[in-house]
């Protein structure tokens, strides 16, 4: 059984990012995956303190709700991270999440806990789904490998200022469901 951890980095619990992540979750669960979902805007957690305690141990020293979620990431086969694009970037809580993933990185930027598939979900107002490719590629190629994340897929929802865009897009929802199903079957 695949273990999947989903992080929702949107402040809107019923917006486009949430809709897409719920479809991924549904696709994974309906295909027998174990899924943990964390909504960053509902969690109490601190930013990375730069203490480097995780260099001495393989765990974050900040004892908060995110630390518990990071334990699940270590055991996971796949991670899904969703964020709206605000001011041409991911949301602040997702930036903090990425900083707090530092304990996953070992010596010389190599992953400590093996490789895991990662799927990213982005929602944006602009109509061209490739508008922020350079930024998304920077995250995928510059940061993810050190955490052990293998970039599996990226879903971009456009026209995101309408909170029902994803809900009304059958193709997008089917794609998200199929991604969940694919993640559920990565160990088969």
Automatic annotation (TrEMBL):
UniProt KW Flavoprotein keyword: yes
InterPro entries associated with the record: Flavoprotein-like_sf, FMN_Rdtase-like_dom, ISF_SsuE-like
Flavoprotein keyword on record: yes
Domain named NADPH-dependent FMN reductase-like: residues: 3-121
Domain of life where this protein originates: Bacteria
Keywords: Flavoprotein, FMN
Name of protein: Flavodoxin family protein
Organism: Brotonthovivens ammoniilytica
